[in-house]
Amino acid sequence: MAVTYTTVITLKPGAAAAFMALLTPVLDAMRHEATFINAVLHQDGGDPDRFMLYETWANPRDLEEVQMGRAYRTACWQGLPELLREPREVAAWQPLRTDFRTAIEPAG
Q1: Mean pLDDT computed over 79-106
Q2: Could you tell me the CA-to-CA distances from 59 to 35, 71, 86, 92 in Å, in that order?
Q3: Alpha helices of the chain — where are they, by DSSP H?
Q4: What is the radius of gyration, based on Cα positions, of the chain?
Q5: Could you give the 3-state DSSP secondary structure of residue 38?
Q6: Which 8-state DSSP code applies to residue 84?
Q7: By three-state DSSP, how is residue 16 classified?
Q8: Residue 6: how many CB atoms within 10 A of its CB?
């Protein structure tokens, strides 16, 4: 049963570039995992230091027991705490329906 996780990340002012440098390699690597379905990173239009990561995995047990410990996540796990303005907010959701027209182009 697939599970979607939303993670709201609120950074210290000016930390967005450092955050993206930590997160980009993780997103680039995890898309190749067998149980990965999708991920979408969002940035708050009113607060450039606030992000929401939406990711769906086919097997939540695999995510927790295997994927979260992958070596490509280490730098992000180690560097993220010093960038945070407040603790991450993580929620798990059960997908009921999926509708996508096409890939979303990043805002200019």
Answers
A1: 90
A2: 6, 19, 29, 12
A3: 16-30, 60-65, 74-79
A4: 14
A5: strand
A6: B
A7: helix
A8: 15
Q: How many residues does the chain have?
A: 108
Determine the residue type at 46.
G
Instruction: Give one word for 58, left, alpha or beta, with left for phi > 0 and alpha for psi -120 to 50.
Output: alpha
Mean pLDDT of the 73-82 span: 94
Q: Which CATH class is domain 3-93?
A: alpha beta
Q: Determine contact, residues 24/81, Cβ cutoff 8 Å.
A: no
Confidence of residue 66 (pLDDT cuts 50, 70, 90): confident
**5 closest CA partner among 50, 43, 31, 36:** 36
- φ/ψ of 9, rounded to 5, equals -120, 120
Q: How far apart are CA 41 and CA 25, in angstroms?
A: 13
